[in-house]
Every structure is written in C-alpha cells, then in structure tokens.
Amino acid sequence: MKFLTQNEAIAVDETLFTECGYSVDQLMELAGQSIAHVTYHEYKTVPNILVVCGPGNNGGDGLVAARHLHFLGKNVTVFLPKAGKSQLLQNLIKQMQVLQIPILNNEIELNQVINQQDVILDAIFGHSFKHPVNEQFKKILEIINTSGKDTVSVDIPSGWDVEKGDITGEGLKPKILISLSAPKLCATHFKGIHYLGGRFLPSSIIKKFNLDTPKYPDNSLFIRLYI
C-alpha cells in the first residue's frame, strides 16, 4: 500500500480537478458519503454522533457526512467553531439548518453536549494542514481527547503532521481513521482501525501516482485496511 506525502495528496486532488473534470463539491459529496457509511458501519447501534468540523474542505466533508448520517437515522450534532466563507460551505450549513441539525460554535456549548455523545467524528484538519495548531483549536483537541469518547478521524487525525504523525503529542487519539483516496504518510503511525474511503479514483490517477488501491468489495464505498 502506497502512503502519500503531503505534496502528493495535494497533487492527486489537483489532477482530479484539472485532468479529470471533478469539482470540489463533487469530491466532497463522494468523500462525505463514504465517511458516513464507515461511521454507520462501525456504530450501527449508537444514536448520537457529534461531527466536529474545521473551516476548510475537511470540514466540508464532515458536513456532508453529517447530512448522510442524519438520513441514516443518527441523531447528529455539528460543532463548527469557525465557518468557512465559501459559497459551497455556506450551502452545506444551510442544509444543516433545513434538516434541523444543531450547529454549535463555541467551547461552552461543546462542553455542554460532549458527554451526551456516543462518538465524535473529527473533520477538523485535512491533508493541507501545517503546524502549529492555533490556540482555539488546541483547546478543542484537548476537550475531545479528554472526553473519553470514541473518535473517528477523517483522512488525518487532527493535530497530526500529515507525514510524521502526532509530533507534538497534542493531536487527537482516534480509534478509527478513514483515509480518503489513498492513505497519507502519517497513517504509518496509526495503530487503530483503518478504513479507505472514496471509491471514485479513475484508473488514470491510480496509474499516474502508482497507487496500489485495493479492490472494494461488492457495492461498498469503503474497505478495511490491514497494514
């Protein structure tokens, strides 16, 4: 299994846009749906899921996943401390409002609801993240880490270096990691349950970047990795 550097991960996305005709919102929808399906698969019997979203595309993936989890019957709450300003993210926020999915935006509210949750979906930072974590998000990571709740991280455990892992010791400690498209180098330091999601890579991308992507089973949007 090939693990991508940060630059390779960014290049895969750019190639999907420029050479393959994908749009940002299309990739976000595909990623978010696979994230929701993994989370549902692992937590079928628990009702309450807190989706913690950052301001970038990783947060957008989380908002899409929140919508899909809502339609899969989960009681979803979104924590969005810093909303992105793009029209795409504003549209996703509007969808949360239409579906009456609560959106929280400060640490006081986070502390009030976190004990009522069964699992936390971490969609804060993605593969474009660079250290350091600012003070606002450092506190949020601490609240999640000390909550005792199962955490599922999207693509990169938030606070981790994309290639070197949890170099500060302050990153999240997820039980489950969902890599998107292909695992990033930091996943070599992850010892929990690992899934690959995002069944949308054209064969031209797989060949260009030498990705030994495993074959997804049947009609599944994800596959468990044992690496």
TrEMBL record:
Q: Which reaction is this enzyme known to catalyze?
A: (6R)-NADHX = (6S)-NADHX; (6R)-NADPHX = (6S)-NADPHX
* EC number(s) per entry: 5.1.99.6
Family statement drawn from the similarity comment of this UniProt entry? Belongs to the NnrE/AIBP family.
Tell me the HAMAP family matching this sequence: NADHX_epimerase
**An MF annotation (GO) of this entry:** metal ion binding
Q: Which cofactor does it need?
A: K(+)
Q: What class of enzyme is it?
A: isomerase
- What role does this protein play? Catalyzes the epimerization of the S- and R-forms of NAD(P)HX, a damaged form of NAD(P)H that is a result of enzymatic or heat-dependent hydration. This is a prerequisite for the S-specific NAD(P)H-hydrate dehydratase to allow the repair of both epimers of NAD(P)HX.
Q: Which organism is it from?
A: Streblomastix strix
| Pfam name, any one | YjeF_N
Question: Do you know which NCBIfam families this protein is assigned to?
Answer: yjeF_nterm
Q: Which domain of life is it from?
A: Eukaryota
What InterPro entries does the annotation carry? YjeF_N_dom (IPR004443), YjeF_N_dom_sf (IPR036652), YJEFN_prot_NAXE-like (IPR032976)
The residues that hold (6S)-NADPHX are 57-61, 126-132, 155
Task: Name the lineage.
Answer: Eukaryota, Metamonada, Preaxostyla, Oxymonadida, Streblomastigidae
Annotated ranges, domain YjeF N-terminal: 9-213
Per UniProt, K(+) binds at 58, 122, 158
Report what the protein is called: NAD(P)H-hydrate epimerase
Keyword Metal-binding attributed = yes
Keywords, comma-separated and alphabetical: Isomerase, Lipoprotein, Metal-binding, NAD, NADP, Nucleotide-binding, Potassium
Bound how, and how many: what does the cofactor note say?
Answer: Binds 1 potassium ion per subunit.
Any one cellular-component term (Gene Ontology): mitochondrion
